[in-house]
Prior knowledge:
Blueprint (H helix, E strand, L loop, with lengths): L5 H24 L6 E7 L1 H4 L9 H11 L4 E7 L5 H11 L6 E5 L2 H5 L4 H18 L4 E5 L9 H17 L3 E3 L22 H20 L20
Parallel strand pairs: 1-2, 1-3, 3-4, 4-5
Amino acid sequence: xxxxxxxxxxxxxxxxxxxxxxxxLAEDSSQPAPRKTVLVLGDSLAAGYGLEPDEAFPALLxxxxxxxxxxxxxxxxxxxxxTSAGGLRRINWLLRQPxxxxxxxxxxxxxxxxxxxxxxxxxxxxxxxxxxxRNPSVKFVIAGMRMPNNMGEQFTREFEQVxxxxxxxxxxxxxxxxxxxxxxxxxxxxxxxxxxxxxGHRIVARNVWQVLEPVLRAPPQSATLTDLSSKEDxxxx
Length: 237
């Protein structure tokens, strides 16, 4: 007949349990953390009008993120022809999924249609507020646009101030002119001289990355305001 020694059995059981628990924890810790989300809410510029999806600047940003070893994924919510009002209508649906960084690329079509800059600013501010309500730690990148001089001096000035004002008042990072180095250049745009071609999108992606990379690397409360200067004339999406 076998005789069991209770303390020895307990010691053996405890050692086995600890070993299994340690192995389980080690296995769990080896699992990659879920990717955070960068939502690009934009118009035809983000949608890559006239190009393949992988040629548009959001897809190029994903390549830069991966090359930098940053744990973020780009969700491209670009829609050709969209305005700030259209983005406001879409944002609640888009916020059904977590958003860690909102890259707001809207307003160009508002300007081309002569919509009041005050109305554009109100719509964009509401997008920001709804996003922040859903995730208080979200970070914002505002992609500024400029209008051609033929829109009138006062209109073009007020339009540009929409984006600088939004960035300042919402502690957001700013790209003063998304199309810096691209706008108006026939070599970098499609025949309509409005939408960038593949090479133009590569430049746009570099413009964005200069601002976006420090935002992705910074903790949520310390996103910085970055200023890119350009004297290029603007065209809209």
